[in-house]
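Exercise 3.2. Students should predict the tertiary structure of the chain below and write it as structure tokens, then compare their answer with the key that follows.

Predict this chain's 3D structure.
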Amino acid sequence: MARFSHADPRYQAALQEMGRNLRKLLDERDWTQADLVRATRLHMPIDLATGLPGRYDADNASNMMNGKRRPTRAFVKAVSAALGIEDGAFLPDFLRADHLIGGELKPLLTEVPGKPGIFRVFIDQEFPIKQALRIVGALEGEANNAP
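Answer key:
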């Protein structure tokens, strides 16, 4: 999986390119950012903590369109569905390589090659602070108790 610094100029350029790609897709549909927000909200997954659809509002749309925020997997899937395009088609290659493997979203759990019984967990989801701290605490506790 590609790893990079948020200060990496390639990362910043990819975010800007993503914003341009989204603007182009909106222009092709004669949509505004508000139209994108309304359509994307219909496809946001349910937040396990609240039981409500995930949050996506004008601030999120603006940050994405202006290249100020990295998209989450939930956003990639929701905006792709809202626009009726292949998952992640609006992502530049630099970001696509980090989010997608073979056109599919990464699994949440994969075995580490050469380390039987050891797994890597991928989490890219927003949580309320209490739940996030419980998850981190559980992961740290398990890591400390690993053989």
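Discussion points: The first strand starts at residue 100 and ends at 101. Residues 98-105 have pLDDT under 50 and may be disordered.
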